[in-house]
Specification:
Order of helices and strands: HHEHEEHEEHEEEEEHHEHH
Number of helices: 9
Strand content: 15-25%
Structural class: alpha/beta
Distance between the termini: 17 Å
Radius of gyration: 18 Å
């Protein structure tokens, strides 16, 4: 059983378990309490360095999670009030939030189609890629990653840490392998530019040069499971870096059975990835 298959089965069991009606409010209550405590600490974590937000646009792909989207947008507006935001929404009833541009897509168009539609609409030098279940803070240090890209023109994309609530667990190492590829990294893996380490892959939490990001883009035929495919195709085209002090929180909705049924419907995507990356299998 692959790691993704195991995680998919676990999510399905949580979303359909009889105890979810008790577990869901408990889970939400713990996350809300954690966020309240973190925000009190975060008030003292302001980045004193000036940040030219007019150079950055945040793009967010969302699907059937208006509450989580609103939570992310609130956190962005609290910490970066001048930041431009574009939301690509393929829900049945797309959300329209104040101060946010929404691109409505056909129902269940998929992550790749949504991210590409949002990227196509960006008019700034830099693009910040986010998932709808993230939460940012003053301590996220957007300024640090923007300044890293300023100082090191060799880099095209810099990502950071994603911290899962309620257990405060960090996502896997950026050294996770790609799909098989003959492409060579533009810059040797492990090379350091200040605090940034060159790697092959980072979480879906990164800031990239918009023009360079468009040179890779997302394939709309791949509705889900796009992460490894994107970074495999990016190898040799983008120089990717990892900045540990750039981070966000991640709080899912694991008991939403309808959402999870769509999220874990990826048999067609696995077949597509097999044909693309393992043609002789």
């Amino acid at each position: 059983m692959t790691r993704s298959t195991f995680k998919s089965r676990l999510r399905k069991q949580l979303a359909r378990a009889p105890f979810r009606y008790l577990a869901e409010p408990l889970f939400d209550g713990v996350v809300r309490a954690e966020l309240a405590a973190i925000r009190r600490w975060d008030a003292a974590a302001l980045d004193a360095s000036p940040l030219e937000l007019e150079r950055v646009t945040a793009i967010i792909k969302t699907f059937e999670r208006p509450r989580l989207l609103a939570r992310l947008v609130r956190s962005l507006q609290r910490c970066f009030p001048a930041l431009s935001m574009i939301v690509a929404d393929d829900s049945r009833a797309p959300s329209h939030l104040p101060g946010v541009r929404t691109i409505e897509l056909p129902f269940d168009s998929g992550v790749s189609a949504g991210r590409q539609a949002a990227l196509d609409a960006v008019q700034t030098e830099l693009t910040w890629v986010l998932d709808d279940d993230f939460i940012v803070l003053h301590g996220t240090r957007l300024g640090s990653v923007v300044r890293a890209l300023e100082r090191h023109p060799e880099l095209d994309l810099v990502g950071g840490n994603v911290i899962d609530l309620p257990l405060f667990s960090r996502r896997r190492s950026p050294r996770d392998p790609l799909y098989p590829t003959s492409a060579s990294p533009r810059i040797a893996l492990g090379t350091r530019f200040g605090d940034v380490e060159v790697c092959d892959k980072v979480p879906n939490f990164f800031v990239a040069r918009t023009a360079a990001l468009r040179g890779v883009g997302w394939d709309a035929r791949l509705k889900r499971l796009e992460h490894g495919d994107f970074f495999t195709r990016a190898r040799g085209l983008l120089a990717t870096g990892y900045l540990p002090k750039f981070w966000c929180l991640h709080a899912q909705a694991p008991f939403d059975a309808e959402y999870m049924s769509k999220r874990d419907d990826y048999a067609a995507d696995e077949a597509f990835l097999l044909a693309r990356h393992f043609p002789e299998a």
